[in-house]
Amino acid sequence: MSFENLSATWADEPLTDPDATADAVDLMVSLGDRRRGTFTILICDPDDHYLATVAIELPATFSLDSSAAQLCETALHPIIPAVHTAPGTALVLVLGRPGPARMTGLDAQWARAAGTICAAAGIRLLGFYVATEDGIYQPALTESAAA
């Protein structure tokens, strides 16, 4: 996955293909964002086309905390009312973090929290991704999906 794979018209195409979305995530979440730890929200229109990006820096200890759900909820709290002003808006959520390519427990907690929060808020979640210096991947949103 690499932003170099994106077509010149990628923003005119829906972010429904996981590979193309991973390439867009690679473009939007810089290496600095990944090293610092960020929660990035890609906002899409009702046709799932990219509109904007919001990046929120996470506390330095976020990967050590057991409160992934609380941090995710805090980060999404100001976004949810804004999304509700434009019916049909969809989100792609990204945990940018340092460390190994996969931290199964941490990544799964964030993915589950994101899925639960978006479902409860009535927001379409197009995908949840993890971006590290080693690449982009998509953990399962639910425990049953991981089985």
Protein described:
With 147 residues, the protein is α+β, with helices and mostly antiparallel strands. 37% of the residues lie in helices and 23% in strands. It has six helices and five strands, in the order H-H-E-E-H-H-E-H-E-E-H. Strands 2-1-3-4-5 form a five-stranded mixed beta sheet, sandwiched between helices. Helix 3 crosses helix 5. The longest helix is centred in the C-terminal third of the chain and has 18 residues. The radius of gyration is 14 Å and the shape is globular. The C terminus is likely disordered.
Q: Count up the helices.
A: 6
| Distance from first to last alpha carbon | 25 Å
Write down how many β-strands occur, each being a DSSP E stretch of 2 or more residues: 5
Shape call: globular
Chain-averaged pLDDT: 88
Order of helices and strands: HHEEHHEHEEH
Low-confidence stretches: 143-147
The largest sheet is: 5 strands, mixed
* Helix vs. strand class: alpha+beta
Oligomeric assembly? single chain
